[in-house]
Amino acid sequence: MKPGRAGRWTTTLVCAVLALTAVPARAQTPEVRHAAVPAAPVVHTRAGAVRGTAGEGYRTFDGIPYAAPPVGSLRWAPPRPARPWTRARDATRPAGACPQPAGEVPGGSTTEDCLHLNVTTPDSARPDRPRPVIVWVHGGGFTTGAGSSYDAHRLATRGDVVVVTVNYRLGALGFLAHRGLPGSGTFGLADQQAALRWVRANIGAFGGDRHNLTLAGESAGGFGVCAQLASPTAAGLFDRAIIESGPCTGRADRPFAPSAISLKAADDAGAKLAKAVGCGAARQVVSCLRRVSTARLLAAQDTAQQPAYGTGLLPRDPYTALARGAVHHVPVLIGSNHDEGNGWAAAIIQAGTRITPANWPRTVADFLPDPAQAPAVVRTYPVTETNGGPVLGAVIGDSNYSCPTLRTGTLLAAHVPVWRYEFADENAPPLTPAPTPFPLGAPHASELTYLFDLGGRPRTMTPAQHRLADTMIDYWSGFARTGDPNASNTPTWPAGAVQSLAPDHTGPTNTTAAAHHCTLWNTMP
Asked: Which is the catalytic residue, given 104, 112, 218, 340?
């Protein structure tokens, strides 16, 4: 969540929201996945050989450096190539996550040597039989997360695709801006592009098709995909795009969804950080900042971080670029979840806010960028003494995710093939066992369980949910293969329709916009 009129909730809610929506971190030691262990696979990359782990029908290669450690003079510098190595590198366990406060990664991380990726490849993939490639960009508000949290073996084996999960610089280390500093505000996005270049150059050795690469991400990772669609320096780096709950029309005044900020705003935030760590008056501010400890930078950075536009990598805000058609023309699969806002609403309730008919108008006015819009929202979303939490969740989800995602899809469809979905399992397994004040339905990030084993641990699902997971993997991998999610064994996904994804009820729907009151939200300035 970003600061704004809703900023009075920010400080008290960040930890609670992370607890409800964080993707569990994967164990740092390799887990035993089968009784008989095949010989460790070795693959030769351009920088050197890597020795991975053989699973049942797949191979994993973890912690491969795709760029040099961004330390010393490379802190706040564009990513540089990794230094080659001579002996086979151990790739049997994840590398450290990029620096971040405690949350998704237990205890946080201060490891700046973090520009690594992880490759999961099905046994069917060989250099002479290459498979489509999905490059996954994790979410976490541009402040938390790690590629290693996403165990992709189900997606790789059932989908018959090669999956690459990526770390990139986060927080102030990924998005600091300072006048005259090359790459200001976009170092994390530049890391993603460096990873894509590494994949184009090396994935063939793992059995991936370097000419068939899908860039995919969720939440901040999904908005990262939007940014790459709008970035001229990403031209030719990917062939398709998947955006999950990261609409390209994100705005700074809609505080719960990712967005970009102007370079001027990013410069101001950078100056604030420099002052907070004692570098504001330094003659060489960036040199001073490079000497500050990682822990001190993390303690001083703003809770919210966004990439900057008005830069060489991102000349325009993704929303503006999309409205002008100034995006890479590749097929896009895009969607959101039915109850996106319920995790935030639950955290607000648990933080001590009670929503009643009496205080609902003031709550809405505090939430909106223009309080004059509050009466229309109050009328559209009536509150009783017992439904305040879910109604607040609907307001957050509809305004920040559901309607912006539909709007993004409409704008994209004017230029490229688009496939739209809404994940709608009303009993989706929670990402964490934390108790909630009301059922969350299908909240933010809940679809991830159907594609990945999060933190390396499978979730408990009903048979119908397992079938939905299989269907979603078939859709995602089919799209990665051909640009069309339809496969012979899946329910038909008509072009132009919103495909509702629910256990044993998957099919097109034409009621999504009405259910989320998008006429109201789309007419707000």
From this structure: 340
